[in-house]
Design goal:
With 441 residues, this protein is an alpha/beta fold. It contains twelve helices and 15 strands. The strands form two sheets. It has a nine-stranded mixed beta sheet with strand order 13-12-11-7-10-9-8-14-15. It has a six-stranded parallel beta sheet with strand order 3-2-1-4-5-6, sandwiched between helices.
C-alpha cells in the first residue's frame, strides 16, 4: 500500500461542508502510519485513537478500547460538553493510574468531528453518535485515512450504508461494526451447529424482539438548550426541530428522523446473528413484510408493537415478533437452537446438540478474543474484522427493510444485488431520508 499523505487541518476543513477556516495547534504524538507503509505499526506498538460520540454507548466503547495496551487515546469529540469532558477525565484518570504519571494531560476535546479527522496523528476513530450521523462521519473518516469502529446500525438508511461500504473500500480502510453479539463464543458455536447441519435442514429463523424500556409519550414542550450542548450540530443532517430533552441522547432511537426504534437498536444485534447462522452475510433477503403500531401523536414515532418477516433466496424464512425472551431461534427438520441476547446462553432440542464437537473438516467460524480487540488486531494486520463493513451494511439494510414494510403494511419484493424494491416507487422513495444541508454522503 502507499503511504498516506497527511492532510492539514485547514485543508481538510476547507473540503468539508460549512466550515470556517481557523487553525489551532495540536499536541501530536507520532502516528503508526507515519512510520511505515499504510497500516504499519509504530515501534511503540500503539494505535492512536479518538472517540466521536461519548454518551452512554460511546463511553462503553471508549473504555473497552482504552483498556487495550496497543491503544493510545489522544482525543474525544462530542457536541455535548459534559459528555466530552467526562470522557476526557475518564481516559486521563486511566492513564494516570496505569502510567503513574499524575501530570498526564494527553486527551484533547472537540465539538466538531472534522477537527478530529484533520489530525494526521490519529490512526483510527470510534463512532458512537446517534444513528443519523453514522454514515456522514464514517465516510468522512474513510476519506481522511482513518480506520473505523462504528456502532450499529452501520447507517440510518440503505443508500447511506452503501456509501459507507464504497468509501471504506475505495480508501482501503478497516471497519468494525459494533455488532458485538457475533463475537461471543456461544453465538458463534450455535451458528456453527446450524451451518454444519446439526439441526438438519434450516427452514425457519424466529426473532424475539420485545420492547421493554420505553413507550409512547406525549409531545414535549419546547425547552431551553442546555449550556454546552451544540443542539444544531446534534441535529446535523436531520430536519430542524425544537429542542426538548427527550429528543436527544438515549431517546433519539425512538424517533424516525434519527433512528429506527427497536428494529435498529437491539434488533440489529439479533438480525445480525440470523445472517451469520444462515450463511447470508454477503446478501439480504428477497422479500419482506410486516405490520407495526406507529404512534400518530407524541414525540416517539417508531414502532411500538410489530411482527415482520423475510424470505431468503435459499427458501429460509425469518419471522420476528415483539415478544420475549429476547433472542433468536434457528429451526431445522431435526432440531433447534436458541441464542439468548445479552448473555449468550444457549438452549437446544435435543439438548445433546450443545455437546456436539465441530470436526476438523467441518465449517469453523473462528473465535474472537473480544470485539474491540478484534478491531485493533485487524487495524494492525489489515485483515477483515468479525463484523466488517459489508456485513454491517447488510444487517442494517434488513432492519430498514422491515421498518419500511411495516410502515407501508404490505409485502415488498427486494433485489439484493441492485438494492432496490421491485415495482414499488413509494417504497424506493423511503430508502433514503432527506438530508439537511450542508451534510451529505
Amino acid at each position: 500500500m502507499q503511504q498516506r499523505t497527511p492532510i492539514s487541518r485547514r485543508g481538510f476543513l476547507r473540503k468539508t461542508a460549512g466550515v470556517a477556516a481557523g487553525a489551532a495547534a495540536f499536541p501530536y504524538i507520532i502516528p503508526s502510519s507515519a512510520l511505515g507503509a499504510d497500516g504499519a505499526v509504530a515501534p511503540s506498538n500503539r494505535i492512536v485513537m479518538a472517540s466521536i460520540g461519548t454518551g452512554g454507548q460511546g463511553t462503553g466503547d471508549t473504555r473497552g478500547l482504552m483498556n487495550l495496551p496497543d491503544v493510545q487515546y489522544v482525543a474525544v469529540c462530542d457536541v455535548d460538553r459534559a459528555h466530552r469532558e467526562s470522557a476526557k477525565n475518564m481516559i486521563e484518570d486511566f492513564y494516570k493510574n496505569r502510567q503513574n504519571t499524575p501530570e498526564y494531560k494527553g486527551v484533547d476535546t472537540y465539538n466538531d468531528f472534522r477537527e478530529v479527522l484533520a489530525r494526521p496523528d490519529i490512526d483510527a476513530v470510534m463512532i458512537a453518535t446517534p444513528d443519523h450521523w453514522h454514515a456522514v462521519i464514517s465516510v468522512a473518516a474513510a476519506k481522511a485515512g482513518k480506520d473505523i469502529y462504528c456502532e450499529k446500525p452501520l447507517a440510518n438508511s440503505i443508500p447511506e450504508g452503501r456509501a459507507v461500504v464504497d468509501a471504506v473500500r475505495r480508501y482501503r480502510r478497516v471497519l468494525q461494526t459494533g455488532s458485538h453479539e457475533r463475537s461471543r463464543d456461544n453465538a458463534r458455536y450455535a451458528c456453527e451447529l446450524v451451518r454444519n447441519g446439526r439441526i438438519g435442514k434450516l427452514h425457519t429463523i424466529r426473532v424475539n424482539m420485545p420492547i421493554d424500556n420505553h413507550g409512547p409519550i406525549p409531545n414535549q414542550p419546547p425547552m431551553a438548550v442546555p449550556d454546552g450542548f451544540d443542539y444544531n450540530f446534534w441535529l446535523g443532517p436531520a430536519a430542524s426541530a425544537t429542542y426538548t430533552e427527550k429528543r436527544c441522547h438515549f431517546y433519539f432511537r425512538y424517533i424516525l428522523d434519527y433512528s429506527g426504534g427497536e428494529m435498529t437498536d437491539r434488533g440489529a444485534h439479533i438480525i445480525d446473528l440470523a445472517q451469520l447462522g444462515n450463511g447470508t452475510d454477503d446478501t439480504t433477503p428477497v422479500s419482506v413484510w410486516g405490520t407495526g403500531d406507529f404512534p400518530k401523536d407524541g414525540l416517539f414515532n417508531t414502532a411500538m408493537n410489530y411482527s415482520f418477516g423475510f424470505e431468503y433466496a435459499n427458501g429460509v424464512k425469518l419471522l420476528g415478533e415483539c415478544v420475549g425472551p429476547r433472542g433468536i431461534k434457528f429451526e431445522g427438520d431435526k432440531g433447534w437452537v436458541f441464542i439468548h441476547i445479552h448473555g449468550g446462553d444457549l438452549e437446544a432440542e435435543p439438548a445433546s446438540l450443545l455437546k456436539e464437537v465441530i470436526g476438523p473438516n467441518e465449517l469453523h467460524l473462528g473465535r474472537s478474543r473480544g470485539h474491540h480487540l478484534d478491531f485493533i488486531e485487524n487495524v494492525k494486520s489489515r485483515g477483515e474484522c468479525k463484523a466488517p463493513v459489508e456485513v454491517g451494511h447488510h444487517t442494517a439494510t434488513m432492519c430498514h427493510l422491515a421498518n419500511i414494510a411495516m410502515r407501508l403494511g404490505r409485502k415488498l419484493q427486494w433485489d439484493p444485488a441492485k438494492e432496490v424494491f421491485l415495482n414499488d416507487d413509494e417504497a424506493n422513495r423511503m430508502k433514503m431520508p432527506s438530508m439537511r444541508g450542508p451534510w451529505t454522503v
